[in-house]
């Protein structure tokens, strides 16, 4: 009896189409899942971005409305003005000269104070600069910076400041209101002599300036300068050479003693003051 023919079947080969189909299905499913997840993330990102942008627009608009509402409201108007740093000036007059009105907006002066500075600098020679601040919602604060005071000049109604910018202060002060450690300019009837002497005095070393009690305008010649010192000595010199000769002052003073006239005009020498000279210069 003949043998039956046996056909060998490879299970893997037979199942490979099915397995491949399943693998492709799984791969496609994963791709679809990834695409779906990516689309979900994209939609979520777009939604968040939209809400964020809307929040920024709404927030900005709200802030703009609040600022505009404040600007047009009475709260933005100048209600009170405070002047700081100008003790010798009348605050009321400073405010009046500044041109500030109750209907003005605070923020306008805070952002642009050029006109205010110009008004006050023209009116008051002692004012160097004014900075503006806002305090207590609707109070305007004017911080005044003045030029340094070099000395004082005696006038009919008191004493006025002599400033580092070469100008004279606008207010006459009482003796009790001035810095008595600074020298006095007395007897100056000509403005040119005052300006020349003030310019020279301001250029001298601080160590010498601090020893000066007063400068006298009763010089014999226009080019002459007379200084009365705190130690009772009197120094005279020529404006054109005084600055160069001042280096000899301390050495001459030691030899001269108290109540001497130290002459630095021509050469350099000293002699005792006469009684009439002491009286004329207010030395007791």
TrEMBL record:
Transmembrane segments: 50-72
Region described as Disordered: spans on this chain: 1-38
A family per Pfam: POTRA_1
POTRA domain: residues covered: 76-147
GO annotation, biological process: FtsZ-dependent cytokinesis
Keyword RNA-binding: no
Role according to the record: Cell division protein that may be involved in stabilizing or promoting the assembly of the division complex.
Similarity comment: Belongs to the FtsQ/DivIB family. DivIB subfamily.
Protein name per the record: Cell division protein DivIB
